Amino acid sequence: MRVVYSPVHLGHAVTMQTVLGERVPANEVAARAERIRATLLADGGFAVAEPTEHGPGPILAVHDAGILRFLEEAWPAARASGHPYDHLTPEAIMAAGMTEGMAERFRHETPAPDGRPGYWAFDTSTPILAGTFAAARAAVDTALTAVDLVLDGGETAAYGLCRPPGHHAARSMYGGFCYLNNAAIAAEEIARRTGEPVAILDVDYHHGNGTEQIFWRRADVLYVSIHAHPDRAYPYVLGWEDEVGEGLGEGYTLNLPQPAGCTNEQFLDALDLALYRISAEEGSVVVVSLGLDTYRLDPIGDFALTTDAFHEAGRRVAALGRRLVILAEGGYHVPSLGENARAWLRGAEGRPFDPRPALDPGAAWDAA
Amino acid sequence: MRVVYSPVHLGHAVTMQTVLGERVPANEVAARAERIRATLLADGGFAVAEPTEHGPGPILAVHDAGILRFLEEAWPAARASGHPYDHLTPEAIMAAGMTEGMAERFRHETPAPDGRPGYWAFDTSTPILAGTFAAARAAVDTALTAVDLVLDGGETAAYGLCRPPGHHAARSMYGGFCYLNNAAIAAEEIARRTGEPVAILDVDYHHGNGTEQIFWRRADVLYVSIHAHPDRAYPYVLGWEDEVGEGLGEGYTLNLPQPAGCTNEQFLDALDLALYRISAEEGSVVVVSLGLDTYRLDPIGDFALTTDAFHEAGRRVAALGRRLVILAEGGYHVPSLGENARAWLRGAEGRPFDPRPALDPGAAWDAA
């Protein structure tokens, strides 16, 4: 399988994040993508190439122009204003209830460098660093290059090793380690170029609230997600069973939230349901938001999946018989990320999975 | 003047807060109210008494029942769930754009103790501690007891030494060191009991976004605020000149944002404008949101007011000839808070101000 990867992500050098008001070591670190890339290269069956530039057009088909402008300007403006930290993190956020009963035009985007992030962000765990904007743009190009490989390059499937991830980013919001929604931008591009409906299958541990919001009222992009129930898990406010879309989009969002401890069997049963729903719609391409934080050792997840299940999941998704644009999302147990991605992708190719912990030096993780 | 004060605020023992993603020493500390109380007692012209309980009724006339329930349950639930910190601070916040295009019923309030704050909070600098709910309730009782003194007790003016402050708290949101909106609850109670229109004069350095939101569509409660322009200052999203109210409330919000370095003269000119607007409406009672963070040494403000200006401001407000319910809001230069409050309140009583730094031991602050 062809793998798209850009080293530009390394400039998004996150080391710390703010969670529940405390500064803690970051989960969404550069080593994640590096581990996956190294393991796929060592496998021998994957060819890694850099993305091509696609410009802002496909981004603006999905996102508000204001958030793209903000992401570009935020860090230089903060530095010029004497911002004291090596990250830009919001304090006050334009929460829904702040302007309850007020017309939208009264929500002002302040030019103040320290205040402006609160207009576009929804959490504190998604810092803007010097290299963040370039990395977010490169992640979009990574996704769009994977689309090119499938639509124009004759590939049945391609893997975009996107970092930062994207599925929490909404039309006009960033958060959840995500700045621009790689999967949504890819799906929109596929819909535009093929004229067909597109399905997005989101198997990240966390609900892809951004992707859901972007396509909420559309019938031409089906969003199906398997994730931890928001009654206990981030992003909490969305991802509930009753969210089915509205207007033309009613019935084109399907959330399958799972309990803590979700086993291989529970997950694969939910996956069968998701695939059944996808197979009911037309379309020849599926975008997969491939989070690996459903793994049993993930530090911020509570699912119980083993590496075998990733291989089987890839196999079942490929059995849809559709072309696959597979994009990296979350997954924070770095030692296992390479092997779990490799298992999934080999499953999607119909290749057997040969556990080779030696590809991940010192990887005794699955015995932990 | 009668002063209402409750020692229950001491249980809201804030020492640290999260600002721009970093954990820093708190500004909204218990010493603030203690300094004011001690200085007023030393003056000899003020009589301090504790508030009486008023129950939840007046709170629910202004706030969503859900936020009151949340504030009561949040800390016990967090502690029972093994929350690791001595404060509860949100990570992901239900920002406006998260559910853009979606019906309000899809905004879910998760029961998860670590996620639920994000449904009701709009910033990270307003922690919930073990003693927060009791203190917030006592601050409301403090405000309502000041109302009683004026409406039933024959007082021309009374001072409620509320802590935590209130003016950032909206109908269904807490933030900005505020949990329940003491001034809004007092104004609503005055409107109900007098049948008259009520004016709220907010002279805190920060815009009282919560008070504005609560009365945005009402003509019976006029909101007039002098504050730092949100193009550079918290809360950023609100406090702009074009916010004048909507519907029946159009024309009943007046924002007078000021530039950095705002002098005594600029501030008193804005105050004259505010008082002129207030005098154009009926009503015999004015609620004053008395922040002292306009002082020239305030650590988070950038105005240039001196203690003299506070005395003069109190004098001019009293010259309206209306009864005054004066409630404490912000102000973070602890060494000066007592003297500045004393200056304002003596002005409001028509008493001269005699600078007595000796009342604040070691107070060489004004020479700093």
Mind explaining what this structure looks like?
Two copies of one chain form a homodimer. Chain A is α/β, with parallel strands linked by helices and 368 residues long. Chain A has a single domain (2-64, 140-349), classed as Histone deacetylase domain (Arginase, Chain A, 3-Layer(aba) Sandwich), CATH 3.40.800.20. Chain A has ten helices and ten strands. Chain A has helices at residues 30-43, 57-60, 65-80, 117-120, 132-151, 182-194, 209-214, 264-279, 307-318, 334-349; strands at 2-4, 16-19, 22-25, 47-49, 157-160, 198-202, 221-228, 253-258, 285-290, 323-328. In chain A, the strands form two sheets. In chain A, strands 4-1-5-10-9-6-7-8 form an eight-stranded parallel beta sheet, with helices on both faces. A two-stranded antiparallel ribbon of chain A has the order 2-3. In chain A, helix 9 links the parallel strand 9 and strand 10 (323-328). The radius of gyration of chain A is 19 Å and the shape is globular. The two termini of chain A are 30 Å apart. Chains A and B meet through helix 4 of A and helix 4 of B.
User: DSSP helix count of chain A?
Assistant: 10
Gap between N and C termini of chain A, in Å?
30 Å
Class inferred from helices and paired strands of chain A = alpha/beta
Number of strands of chain A: 10
Name the chain pair with the biggest interface and residue counts per chain.
A-B, 68 and 68 residues
